UniProtKB/TrEMBL annotation:
One Pfam short name: TNP-like_RNaseH_C
Transposable element P transposase-like RNase H C-terminal domain ranges (all copies): 106-136
Protein name: Transposable element p transposase
Classification via InterPro entries: TNP-like_RNaseH_C (IPR048367)
Amino acid sequence: MVNLSALPPEAMATAHFAKKFDQLFNCFNSKAFHSKQVMGHAISVNSEHLRFLNETQEWLNTVRANNQSGSIPCLKGWKLSISCLKMLWDDVRESHGFRYLLTDRLNQECLENLFSVIRGKGGHRFNPSPQEFRAALRQTMVDAVLVQSKSQNCRGDIDAFLFSLDQVPSLGTNAAVDSRLRRDVPKSLPPLMSVPPESIDLTLGRGKCRNIHSRLHCQESISPSML
């Protein structure tokens, strides 16, 4: 747009800033090995991600905010995130033999969603005690479902719950007794009602017919005894 004189020359700096951060966001949100977006593919040995991250980190050191400190927290956060990503890639590649790394899941949204559920279980207490937190966590494990609030500030994640109730040690209970009680609990319980569904439907149908018969005053009607 600057070359077409649609924008002033000063807009080049803004365009460069937007392009740099667009590629940086793509780098931290890769979901597939290949992508049409620049820096949107997986990090690998042959990719340009490390060069781009090093250049971006140096460029961020030159960015100055128009305030007293000359910086803002998000810029410091980006510098820290870039350093962490480079160290993480070196570790998983050298120590664990990773051939590529997808960065979309490198966030704390799973933890924030978990804490939001636990906070809801505890009556939305923002400063629960250790005992209150433990009780809410156990209740969440019992429910075995992470139900996220409609007003959540994070997108839904696809994680399963990381713990189960069996992994939580019981307090004030002998370990041998607790283990025996767990073995004695049946895997399945018998149904509460042994009445066939057909009988239930027939009983409900008769009740509705009696209700209708009591309200109608027809000359020809079904005898209540037949119902």
